[in-house]
Amino acid sequence: MITNTELELKGNQFPNHIVSYNKNIDVLDFKTENDVTLQITIVRDSVIRFRYSTTSNFDNDFSYAITKYASTGYNFLEIEEEEEQYIITTQKLICHVNKQDLKVNIYDAKDKSLISHDELGFHWEESYEFGGDIVKMSKTSQDGESYYGLGDKPSHLNLKGKRFENWVTDSYAYGKDTDPIYKAIPFYTGLHHGKSYGIFFDNTFRSFFDFAHERKNVTSFWAQGGEMNYYFIYGPKMTDVVANYTDLTGKPHQLPALWTLGYHQCKWSYYPESKVKEVTAKFRELQIPCDAIYLDIDYMEGFRCFTWNKEYFPDPKGMVQELLEDGFKTIVIIDPGIKIDKDYEVYKEGIENDYFCRRADGPYMKGKVWPGECYFPDFTNPKVRDWWSGLFKELIEDIGVKGVWNDMNEPAVMEVPNKTFPDDVRHDYDGNPCSHRKAHNIYGMQMARATYQGLKKFGYPKRPFVITRAAYAGTQRYTSSWTGDNIATWEHLWIANVQAQRMALSGFSFIGSDIGGFAEQPNGELYARWIQLGVFHPFCRTHSSGDHGEQEPWMFGEEITGIVKKFIELRYQLLPYLYTSFWHYLNEGTPILKSLVLYDQEDIQTHYRTDEFIFGDQILVCPIIEANSKGRRLYLPKGNWYNYWNNEVSSGGKEHWVEADLDSMPIFVKEGAIIPKYPIQQYVGEKEIDEVGLDVYFKTGKENSFLFDDAHDGYDYTKGRFSLRTFKLTGKTNELIIQQHKAGTFITSYKTFKLKLIGLPFKISKIQVDNEEIALESLKVNGDNTLIIDKDFTELHIME
Ligand code: GLC
Fold first, then answer.
1. What element of type H or E holds 790?
2. What is the reported pLDDT for 74?
3. Which pLDDT value is given to residue 709?
4. Which atom of ligand 1 is nearest to the CA of 469?
5. 614 Cβ contact partners less than 8 Å away, ≥ 6 residues apart
6. Nearest C-alpha to atom 3 of ligand 1 is from which residue?
7. What is the largest CA-CA distance in the chain?
8. Does domain 688-799 have CATH number 2.60.40.1180?
9. DSSP code of 794?
């Protein structure tokens, strides 16, 4: 054997001293004597991109994650050269690049505090197995630093002390700390000394993050190929970090149709047609609201995508239509594996056009999934995405299906140890051909994107609705998601809570878990507790494998049915509040669920809390995640909070014991909030909403609240046909003032507001609407003060 000892001993390699510097507007190139190039791009005052090459050339700059709609531009940029370093200054950041070793330090421009410090900084190892580099970065972990984000990791919300891998994986019945699972979102937020920053490592190869696990004072990340290419995103507020990351990787391309925020019922599988109807009829009979019913793989003919099993579903169009008349939108599953069957149209088209992924040596990639042996479309090829989107014509346009659920798109392959494609499989990668090592983490994202394009096209002028299991950074632009095959255990209820918050912190708010658990069966108590949490997740669906019994809301006896109904009804009442939160998410990139640390990062009590979260801006939710609980301890952030159930006020900044029997769950409303509410409906659109409830929670001081409305579907809102109302509340010991500011041209169906005045510290003796006094008789006093007023009021004064 001939060994090249020089190569073998190479190990980690480092850049040496800078020999040239070049600036082209907002792109700065630093080259070292040993051919490393660091390219720094000033994206915004608070967002800087760092890109390293070890060969002095860069590959084509292409990313599936970064959206073309990302904001760019800065207010200030200055570059100075000193003896030891280059200094780059923007309005928000100061960045030092060391001339000797290319290490970078980043400071807050305002108070000059150190935010990010390269420990070893950029380094690399040659990958003899595959060619190219294993690219690495290590930074100092600062005193008391905490870490958040990273997608769907089923671990403690604060990632400190742990190591993670990003490689999307089919993970049936995963558990706490299983890693990796379905999603790869290589973005984290660090928080130290009250300041927060984010790092998005836009590299789709298998990557790793180590948060002070291997070495206590070091945080590092690396990938098995590709470039060291990361975005540094500065806050110092964590909300701004997440919002800026979301701006970079994209907000959802449109609002979800309001019905998609209703309750969804799913099972593997509801069939035949009579079973589907039995389930939907039961919802209506028991008056449990529900908007969507799902067909899992058994609706197809031998699991062939885009076909129907005509024995189970002789008239899909008729059934879908009838369900719709009863308010149920039908959602069907579509997987990536296309059955190898020479008589199957989709297969034939794929072969004729060479749309399937190939092995490096030429043959198509063959793998087993539900239909048996399959080929897999290369969704990284724009032509294939086009073709795929076209396949939805019949389902959407003709049959009337309203949503598509993309599953197994990691891609999952059965009966092979690595559960997916071999590394050598080739992908087009939008004209940047590569192996599966690079395309794996974005395969599912591109499938969901192609599906989204089909639904958008054929569902027009309605908004598309897609659900995906696999995701990479940026997937939130196209689709909602769920957390995969969880288990009906209490531990998984904890996991579901953490995952939904973590996904929100990772720019992906439209997320939920399989309520009740997918594998195994919950008892009534667990199901009730899960529904209580689930109705506060943006995507709200019960799903189960069905192997262990039924999981409809009424399967656990009368008491549980009543509790489930009560909480789903609460969800429907809060729809305008949730829809408004979505609108904020779409416009500002602020997550819909806010972990306490995001809500108040300055309060260190929040840094390690996992259970409580803020739903929207003003409702605090804390699920009960243990059996036999009569209540729980929870932490209320600073400020005063009303207990939703009894309107008692508690002060925050400390822990409280809160009673919560099985029919209840701790919910608190921030003082000063005005919470919009709909009447209970069995499905969205069942009733014409002519009045919106506004629950006004008195506060001494000021608080703003919002109410967004539009046609609840379609795109008119993008042309200004929306209605955005801002309510400015000012409370004094003897007076309450609510000012309303209106924007947008949409005429809402509601004409009046029904105000419920909660916690008023005085007895009302005078009411003025737009400076005119109104009769006190219009005020109903029945526990709370209720008042109905015209929706277009400008100023309401309520006086002692
Ligand atoms: C996968 C999915 C699950 C689905 C099942 C059958 O396990 O994660 O949700 O029900 O496949 O399609």
1. strand 784-790
2. 97
3. 98
4. 8
5. 593, 594, 596, 599, 620, 621, 637
6. 485
7. 100
8. yes
9. S
For the chain, give the mean pLDDT: 97
Q: Has residue 56 got a pLDDT over 90?
A: no
CA 351 to each of CA 15, 344, 348, 374, 649: distance values in angstroms, whole numbers, following the listed order? 47, 11, 5, 12, 66
Amino acid at 460: Y
**Model confidence at 780, in pLDDT bands (50, 70, 90)?**
confident
Tokens of 46: 């608070």
Q: How far is the CA of 407 from the centre of ligand 1 (A)?
A: 7
How far apart are alpha carbons 638 and 618 in whole angstroms? Answer: 13
pLDDT of amino acid 7: 59
> 120 C-alpha to center of ligand 1: Å?
43
Architecture in CATH for domain 18-140+195-235: Sandwich (2.60)
* Per-residue model confidence (pLDDT) at position 8: 63
In CATH, the architecture of 594-670 is Sandwich (2.60)
Average pLDDT over residues 284-290: 98
Pocket test for ligand 1, best of 331, 408, 409 (most atoms within 8 A of CB): 408
Give the closest residue to 687 by CA, choosing from 698, 699, 700, 678: 678
**3-state DSSP helix/strand/coil % of the chain, to nearest 5:** 20, 35, 45
pLDDT tens-digit readout, 628-650: 999 999 999 999 999 999 999 99
Distance 268 CA to ligand 1 centre (A): 7
Per-residue pLDDT tens over the stretch 436-481: 999 999 999 999 999 999 999 999 999 999 999 999 999 999 999 9
Neighbours of 179 (CB within 10 A): 18
Strand-strand pairing, 218-223 and 403-406: unpaired
| Atom of ligand 1 at shortest range from CA of 545 | 10
Cβ atoms within 10 Å, residue 478 = 25
CB atoms within 10 A of CB 36: 23
Within 6 A (CB) of ligand 1 lie 268, 296-297, 333, 407, 469, 484-485, 543
d(CA 255, CA 251): 10
Tell me if 523 sits within 8 A of 509, measured CB to CB. Answer: no
Measured distance CA(199)–CA(447) in Å, rounded:
26
> Which atom of ligand 1 lies nearest, measured to the CA of 268?
10
With the C-alpha atoms ordered 656, 662, 664, 668, is the resulting torsion angle positive or negative?
A: positive
CA of 485 to the centre of ligand 1 (A): 7
Inter-helix orientation angle 316-325/273-286, to 10°: 0
- Contact between 426 and 359 under an 8 Å Cβ cutoff? The reply is yes
- Tokens 């967002």 found at: 47
How far is ligand 1, taken at its centre, from the CA of residue 684, in Å? 27
CATH 2.60.40.1760 range(s) for the chain read 18-140+195-235
* pLDDT band for position 3 (cuts 50, 70, 90): low
pLDDT of residue 547: 80
Q: Residue 284 class from Cβ within 10 Å (0-12 exposed, 13-18 middle, 19+ buried)?
A: middle
Residue nearest to atom 7 of ligand 1 (CA): 485
pLDDT on residue 128: 85
Q: 3-state class of 6 per DSSP?
A: helix
Give the per-residue pLDDT at 776.
Answer: 82
pLDDT at position 783 is: 66
Pocket test for ligand 1, best of 299, 333, 541 (most atoms within 8 A of CB): 333
355 torsion bin: left (phi>0), alpha (psi -120 to 50), beta (else):
alpha
Buried b (16+ CB within 10 A) or exposed e, 91-105: ebbbbbbbbebbbbb
Tell me if 166 sits within 8 A of 190, measured CB to CB: no
Q: Which of 202, 222, 229, 231 is nearest to 12 (CA)?
A: 222
Where are the domain boundaries for CATH 2.60.40.1180 in the chain? 594-670, 688-799
Residues 175, 156: contact at Cβ < 8 Å? no
Catalytic positions, please? 407, 410, 485
pLDDT of residue 777: 81
